[in-house]
Design a protein that fits this description.
Layout: H1 16-24, E1 30-31, E2 35-36, H2 37-40, E3 44-48, E4 53-58, E5 63-68, E6 76-81, H3 85-95, E7 101-106, H4 111-115, H5 126-139, E8 145-152, H6 156-168, E9 174-180, H7 194-197, E10 205-208, H8 214-227, E11 233-235, H9 238-242, H10 254-267, H11 272-284, E12 294-295, E13 298-299, H12 300-308, H13 313-320, H14 348-353, H15 359-362, H16 364-368
Parallel strand pairs: 1-6, 2-6, 6-7, 7-8, 8-9, 9-10, 10-11
Antiparallel strand pairs: 3-4, 4-5, 12-13
Helix pairs in contact: 1-10, 3-5, 5-6, 10-11, 10-13, 11-12
This protein binds flavin mononucleotide.
The site of flavin mononucleotide (FMN) has 24 residues, from helix 9.
InterPro entries: Aldolase_TIM, DUS-like_FMN-bd, tRNA-DUS-like, tRNA_hU_synthase_CS
Cofactor: FMN
Domain DUS-like FMN-binding: 30-256
Length: 377
């Protein structure tokens, strides 16, 4: 079934609003931002009736570490950062009923990930990968998919062997970020390598890296056809961040696309800080994505200065000419929404059984504010 589902998309950020926008424009599936197993374990599932969302809230940090909603259950894949089969299972079991499947990140080269044996560190540990994937497949209901996202290994044969390990261990689809672990996002992705990888396994293989426009995606499929190469889909990260309507053949005008994102951010209780960051990415554009020189009739440089001065969701709405209801709950659209939530007492024994979360992982903003031109997963 997976073979017949292109094109695909990846949700790279923990941003409900952005996920719902990508789905609205036609993405088949959206992957959530990687969440580390230990961050999710212990989280409380809260039905946020004010916004119709389901939030997984950490009682220790008093923040939502993952947020989704019932309408998205069949379309959202939860991505785990993990180096341990038992922690992966514990985290996945907690969240699996609210998502379509669980993906294991095996491509992130960032030091916080690799130091903890997660992300790209797993590319050197096929035995740990086998244990994680087998355990997840065994523990999760059969209708929930188990997938993984990898990077290219130093040779084609090594990548093919690694993909076979993943398939044999239960991965039902494999996304290949077409770069080597040490390559940065500014270096071109190796699309040609897909010709030598797609048939390493029977399960669907998705290509990721440098899909920034519909034209490029069409060119990729044309190239694949000419070469007799049949990957099952493409996964888009930066291209969709700059332009979530990349999935649509009839995209809206730029201004409307941006305003629509603002409305979604308000409706899903996105924090104004994250909303601001995504908006700044959209308004700046990137490789192959040129943006208009003005917004709302205001010169883009001046408008960007206005955006950067905003200090609340209400301010953002005013800047973009969108309505903002003053009736939202206290602390809506801020990082302290759950500050006074009546959390039940935590089981101290359970916490002490978990290995410590390292200091960098503690700061979700660090993970979110990745520089698309810098090091990325
Ligand atoms: C801001 C940002 C956040 C990212 N977060 C993740 C992540 O959580 N998990 C992951 O597997 N990849 C993550 N990535 C990497 C992308 O999934 C993707 O592999 C990479 O950006 C190349 O694809 P692209 O050329 O379409 O951007 C992130 C990338 C960016 C720019």
């Amino acid at each position: 079934m997976w073979r017949s589902w292109p094109p695909w998309c990846e949700g790279v950020l923990y941003l409900c609003a952005w996920i719902s926008e990508c789905l609205r424009y036609g993405a088949s599936l959206v992957w959530g931002e990687e969440i580390i197993d230990r961050k999710l374990i212990g989280a409380l599932r809260v039905e946020n009736s004010a916004f119709g969302c389901i939030d997984y809230v950490s009682p220790r940090e008093k923040v939502s570490v993952f947020s989704t909603c019932a309408e998205e259950t069949k379309k959202v894949i939860f991505q785990l950062g993990t180096a341990s089969a038992h922690l992966a299972v514990e985290a996945a079991q907690l969240v699996c009923n609210d998502v379509s499947g669980i993906d294991v990140n095996m491509g992130c080269p960032k030091s916080f990930s690799v130091k903890g044996g997660m992300g790209a560190a797993l590319l050197d540990k096929p035995e740990v990968v086998a244990e994680i994937l087998t355990s997840l497949r065994r523990a999760l209901p059969s209708e929930k998919s188990v997938t993984c996202k990898i990077r290219m290994l130093p040779s084609t044969e090594k990548t093919r062997d690694f993909m076979r390990v993943c398939e044999k261990s239960g991965a039902e689809a494999i996304t290949v970020h077409m770069r080597l672990r040490e390559e940065r996002p500014a270096e071109p992705a190796h699309w040609d390598e897909m010709e030598r990888l797609w048939d390493a396994v029977q399960v669907p293989v998705l290509a990721n890296g440098d899909f920034f426009s519909r034209h490029q995606i069409d060119e990729f499929w044309k190239h694949c056809k000419e070469k007799g190469c049949r990957p099952s889909g493409v996964m888009i990260a930066r291209g969709a961040l700059w332009n979530p309507s990349i999935f649509s053949r009839e995209p809206p005008a730029f201004d409307e696309m941006v305003r629509s994102y603002v409305r979604s951010a308000v409706a899903t209780n996105s924090t104004y800080q994250n909303t601001k960051w995504v908006l700044s990415q959209m308004l700046a554009g990137g490789t192959g994505v040129t943006v208009p020189t003005s917004f709302n009739g205001i010169n883009m440089k001046t408008f960007n200065r206005e955006l950067s001065a905003t200090k609340s969701m209400a301010h953002i709405c005013t800047a973009f000419g969108e309505p903002f209801e003053p009736t939202y709950p206290n602390r809506a659209h801020t990082t302290v929404f759950y500050k006074d939530f009546p959390f039940p007492e935590e089981d101290p024994q359970k916490r002490s059984r978990l290995p410590p979360v390292d200091a960098e992982i503690e700061s979700p903003q660090k993970c979110r504010r990745m520089d698309p031109g810098g090091e990325s997963a």
